[in-house]
Amino acid sequence: MPKVLISDKLSPAAVEIFRKRGLEVDVRTGLAPADLRAIIADYDGLAIRSATKVTREVLQAADNLKVVGRAGIGVDNVDIKTATARGVVVMNTPYGNAITTAEHAVAMMFALARQIPEASASTKAGKWEKSRFMGVELTGKTLGIIGCGNIGSIVANRAIGLKMKVIASDPYLTAKHALELGVEKVELDDLLARADFITLHTPLTESTRNILSREALAKTRKGVRIVNCARGGLVDEAALAEMLTAGHIAGAALDVFAVEPAKENPLFALPNVVCTPHLGAATTEAQENVALQVAEQMSDFLLTGAVTNALNMPSVSAEEAPRLKPYMELCRQLGAFAGQLTAAQGQEMSAISIEYEGAVARLNTRPLTAAALAGLLGPLMSGANMVNAPVLAAERGIEVSETVHDRQSEYQSRVRITVTTPKQARTVAGTLFAGRPRLVEIKGIPVEADFAPHMLYVTNQDKPGFIGRFGATLSGAGINIATFHLGRAEAGGDAICLVSLDEAVPEDVLEMVRTLPLVVHAVALNF
Questions:
Q1: Could you report the per-residue pLDDT of 223-263, keeping only the tens digit for each?
Q2: Domains recognised in the chain with CATH numbers
Q3: What is the value of pTM for the model shown?
Q4: Exposed site from 2, 35, 318, 462, fewest CB < 10 Å?
Q5: Active centre residues (catalytic)
């Protein structure tokens, strides 16, 4: 039974989802870092919000951890690089609080335009300063959205309803989607020069950190108002304070800060700044939604292998998972076959090509490719799995390509993997037979064989005498042959012998096989 630790507060309904799905759950909130490190090895899953810091040290202690689920969008508190290297899936819930966060941004924009917080404080203090608080309308103003993904798109929709003109800067926003949203896609410098209001809705990455830098803020039009309900660190707070004081920027509304909890900040003293304590997702509906969503996602992954909203692995829906599972095993075993042959010859992979034909070509092939890479790299480096294999391949300069063919092969489905090394290119292909992985081709030679826990692969010259000597050698060593498969390119040419055995081949027996006449090389395989 998979075991999950909930280290931040989730709703009781979310806890109940884990239990109803058959998972063992421990709720231990407020753990000190040392306490979390001391117990994390006992768990398959870790459910968090923003308080728990999933650091490198925590992950290195998490020997059995398979998934970290963040109830919310931001994963600044998770070391994704280390999680990926350790083979831990990191998933978030980007849609559960999207509406809430977008509404908060719009509310902040209204509060900023009409100076509502300051006017409220003044009125409650017994003053009636009607002429002091002169605001601006939103109607007809240009709203610049930096990051027009899920939340940014909702803000755009609401702003258009307010009769604002919306422009957006987002490298991932296509012209077609911009047209569907009713926004104008522009470059960042154009947005800075034209916008009356600027709102940020992008994650914090190395490329977006200080996206509104001192230089960028200097490019904005005089009187601009800035809203940030996304992530602290997107705006240079010191530069923003200076330009607010100088009057170049008319006002700012901030829900997030570079350092949180933000107990002190030079922006707090400025009258034209509206601040809230990271309330973007703080509604009853949103907190419940993201908690339920992360519980469902983590349960699906731990029980069925379904991967939803993962940040470091291709997604596999709950509906896809049963269909993909046998193909993922096929790809993993084909990869392990080619990887073991490559490792046995001490060769470095320079390129990996994976081709899909038939019914498998119509499926979601990204997780299949990840499974193949995990199998390929497993014999070469310990700890390779579907999560970290694509990264490991990239780090080693291995070029990975994936091809989906429309053509139909003689099999209902066929997967072919080609591994290129400095000395050669080796291909291996397989299919599913009665739902089980089966080899159908090695180095272009037809060979029909099921995978077995212990196998012996031999390349030999196709001449009389080999089979008898080979069988006698194994028999003399007391090793029983379960199945025996042969293939050849042409009569008298290169041939392949692939046998499954009842036990692993001892090294001394393997050396005996290698010294047999007509044997080119022999490799013991384990699956």
A1: 999 999 999 999 999 999 999 999 999 999 999 999 999 99
A2: 3-94+285-304 (3.40.50.720), 98-275 (3.40.50.720), 314-449 (3.30.1330.90), 452-527 (3.30.70.260)
A3: 0.66
A4: 35
A5: 231, 260, 278
